[in-house]
Design goal:
The protein is an alpha/beta fold. The protein has a single domain (28-321), classed as Aldolase class I (TIM Barrel), CATH 3.20.20.70. It has eleven helices and 13 strands. α3 (100-111) runs parallel beside α4 (142-158) and α4 crosses α5. The relative contact order is 0.13.
């Protein structure tokens, strides 16, 4: 055969669907997905979230039924976000044993004990100013917020949350929560740190979903999206502080960061496909520009390929209903 023809022909392994699936390197399953949910107190009906077509706020009274429905579809884990009607300056409802944070975990675990419940641990949905901690002279007071994060984590864990997921982006939050949990006798409760959390414009729809009161931004505590070295440093600091698992958020525009952290740490790593990523896919599909199902699978596969073990995604239930 003439040497002008290629010897290596990758197309040999792409010739049909059986060959392609046999040589596929990356896969995801329901074991890898966490469904974030929004639960509102004191309402009777589901409330559609306009900026996230297909996602609804769940009335607290219907949470148990929803958890059962997710479990039947094969969902293994949820992350709870509360939409509170009890706002104050420091978000004190979050550490009440009968506050919304505690009730969401209790209801979910009572409904389906095998469902892994992760409790988003922050204050922005419970403060009247919308920031993720206590305000002091117009700044979020790091160390006072740490004390409150510890109290919230203990309340959620006592109510049954399996995993505490602090998203407030305070320095030292993992260590503060670990200590508070251990002192309360909750040494088996795990911490999924939002360890590399960028101050991203892709959280836009979440603010409607969670009913955030925020004016301004979170740039004084969340990370600058342009920083790669700092992104690795933040996750390694959380590992040092006792995190059981790490996270990169958002996911799709940060695949390089996922890969960097995958190589720098041996902890389980998750990535959060956030509300804006969801909305971009949904609205583009509604406009007829892309095929939603294929883009969803490609985006999640890419996040896994970059190095994430777990993915938080609002598409989890759609995939579960599709039988993955
Ligand atoms: C709150 C929190 C946010 C998200 C998760 N936890 C919003 C923010 O930090 O502004 C974003 C989730 C999403 O956009 O899907 N700390
Ligand atoms: Zn917050």
């Amino acid at each position: 055969m003439s040497s002008q023809f290629p010897e290596a022909r990758p197309r040999r392994l792409r010739r049909n669907a059986s060959l392609r699936s046999l040589f596929q390197e990356t896969e995801f399953s329901l074991n890898d997905l966490v469904l974030p949910i929004f639960v509102e107190e004191e309402i009777d009906d589901f409330v559609p979230i306009n900026s996230m077509p297909g996602v609804m706020r769940i009335p607290e009274s219907k949470l148990a039924g929803e958890i059962e429905r997710y479990a039947r579809a094969g969902i293994k884990s949820v992350m709870t976000f509360g939409v509170s009607h009890h706002l104050d300056g420091n978000g004190s409802d979050t550490w009440s044993d009968n506050g919304l944070v505690s009730r969401m975990s209790r209801i979910a675990k009572d409904a389906v004990p095998d469902m892994i419940v992760m409790s988003d641990t922050c204050f922005c949905e419970y403060t009247d100013h919308g920031h993720c901690g206590v305000l002091h002279h117009h700044e979020v007071d790091n160390d006072q917020t740490l004390i409150n994060l510890g109290k919230q984590a203990v309340a959620a864990a006592r109510a049954g949350a399996d995993v505490i997921a602090p998203s407030a982006a305070m320095d030292g939050q993992v260590q503060a929560i670990r200590r508070a949990l251990d002192e309360a006798g909750l040494s088996q409760t795990a911490i999924m740190a939002y360890s590399t959390k960028f101050a991203s414009a892709l959280y836009g729809p979440f603010r409607e979903a969670g009913g955030s009161a925020l004016k301004g931004d979170r740039k004084s505590y969340q990370m600058n999206p342009m920083n790669r070295r700092e992104a690795v440093r933040e996750s390694l600091m959380d590992e040092q502080e006792g995190a059981d698992a790490l996270m990169v958020k958002p996911a799709g525009a940060y695949l390089d960061i996922i890969r960097d952290i995958r190589e720098a740490s041996r902890l389980p790593l998750s990535a959060y496909q956030v509300s804006g990523e969801y909305a971009m896919i949904k609205f583009a599909a509604q406009a007829g520009a892309i095929d939603e199902d294929r883009v969803v699978r490609e985006s999640l596969g890419a996040i896994k390929r970059a190095g994430a073990d777990l993915i938080f995604t609002y598409f989890a239930m759609d995939l579960a209903l599709a039988g993955i």
